[in-house]
Amino acid sequence: DIATGPFVAFGIEADDDSLLRTSNGQPVKTAGEITQHNVTELFREVAAWGRPRTAQGNPEQVHQDQDGRPERAALAPEFFTVHFLPLGSAQTLHHKSCYKERFQLLYVACGMVHLLSPDLGATVAPGGRLVVELARYLVDLRQEQLQGFASRVEELARAAGFTLLPQARPLETFARFHKAPDSTCGTGSAVDSMTPLPDVPTPPLEDLSQALEGGTPPP
Fold first, then answer.
1. Residue 211 domain flag
2. What is the mean pLDDT of residues 34-44?
3. Is residue 135 part of a domain?
4. 164 three-state secondary structure
5. What digits encode the pLDDT tens for the residues 60-113?
6. C-alpha distances in angstroms, 64 versus 49, 52, 68, 71, 129?
7. Are 33 and 107 within one domain?
8. Which residues pair with 103 in a beta bridge?
9. How high is the pLDDT of residue 202?
């Protein structure tokens, strides 16, 4: 669970105390059940974004105005829509003019670093930010492997047109970059020439290393 998640992020704590109840010293609910509850609640909050608190949990709920007439809950100006895309779209989004240099923030998890390419970087607007999760919380990685992963991330980001932001403390959990207004993405050959990560002994981490080399992403 620590290596593959998402139970570390969503399956440990919950706002519903009944999910954390124990019997004879053992949890009654599994980490998977807690994760399902927490993720479902997140989606409910997203669906109710910008609506009055009384309308949250039911996006179609209506209210009555002062004259007693039904009135649909007003949306906040920052109303947004979430789109779920297949992983293969990361290399093709920039072909559509509506997505080229459109986004202000790009977040890449450590298991998806192989998707960070000049094609994906082309969808970020000049001045936009890139945040990449590093491998600090993957088990059985030596310090030199963690440093090699961080160096690899920086090379991929630089080839995609990003520059490392100055950090007050050493890179450990996240690497943060920005895209200069006049930046141009690198070429595929620049990515191919980068130094690969050192071999990783355990199976899950070998899958991650293969993914960083452009292979099939780990499950």
1. no
2. 91
3. yes
4. strand
5. 454 555 565 555 545 455 677 778 888 788 888 888 888 899 999 999 988 899
6. 20, 13, 5, 5, 42
7. no
8. 124
9. 32
Residue with tokens 């109303």: 79
Number of Cβ within 10 Å of residue 141's Cβ equals 21
Q: How many CA atoms lie within 13 A of 102 on its CB side?
A: 11
Q: Is the pLDDT of residue 20 over 60?
A: yes
Judgement on whether residues 36 and 94 belong to the same structural domain of the protein? no
* Structure tokens belonging to residue 177: 């970059």
Asked if residue 89 and residue 37 are part of one domain, the reply reads no
Domain that holds residue 166: 85-182
CB-based contact 118:100 (threshold 8 Å): no
CB-CB contact of 7 with 1 (8 Å): yes
| Chain centroid, CA 203 distance in Å | 23
Number of independent structural domains in the chain: 2
Distance CA(77)–CA(121), nearest Å, equals 28
Identify which of 174, 163, 186 has the alpha carbon closest to the alpha carbon of residue 131: 174
Quote the CA–CA distance of 180 and 183 in Å, as a whole number.
Answer: 5
- C-alpha distance from residue 214 to each of 114, 115, 116 (Å): 6, 8, 10
Q: Does residue 55 belong to any structural domain of this protein? A: no
Closest CA to 85 of 123, 39, 135, 125: 123
pLDDT digits 0-9 by tens, 98-135: 889 999 999 998 889 999 999 999 999 999 999 999 98
Q: Note the residue count of the chain.
A: 219
Q: What is the DSSP letter of 218?
A: P
71 belongs to a structural domain = no
